[in-house]
Amino acid sequence: xxxxxxxxxxxxxxxxxxxxxxxxxxxxxxxxxxxxxxxxxxxxxxxxxxxxxxxxxxxxxxxxxxxxxxxxxxxxxxxxxxxxxxxxxxxxxxxxxxxxxxxxxxxxxxxxxxxxxxxxxxxxxxxxxxxxxx
Length: 134
Hints:
Layout: E1 11-15, E2 27-32, E3 39-44, E4 51-55, H1 57-60, H2 70-75, E5 85-93, E6 96-107, E7 113-116, E8 127-128
Parallel strand pairs: 1-7
Antiparallel strand pairs: 1-2, 2-3, 3-4, 4-5, 5-6, 6-7, 6-8
Pfam family, one: FliW
Keywords: Bacterial flagellum biogenesis, Cytoplasm, Translation regulation
Protein name: Flagellar assembly protein FliW
């Protein structure tokens, strides 16, 4: 089970390995988007001007409960899934907002350690968002 509300909202994240497509970058800033509950920006700190939008799935995809492997928790300095926050990458595809449920970003909010997982589960790469969860 993932945490109900992420606590890492704003801060510096250091990835255990560069996120796919962002090598060699590992340091990013996470910031909440004002007026948009559960929406965050992830920007590189090296000046490459890279930005991703992340969503807290508890707001938009409440049924999303990815399986985080023990070795991934250990790499983040966490001992249980309840100690980490999970985000999904959001973008626009064919004019509709979609999220990548196959490759969540998992964060240890105490240390700022982060990783982007590639799950072996049957989650979609582009899940369309219909409406904000109640």
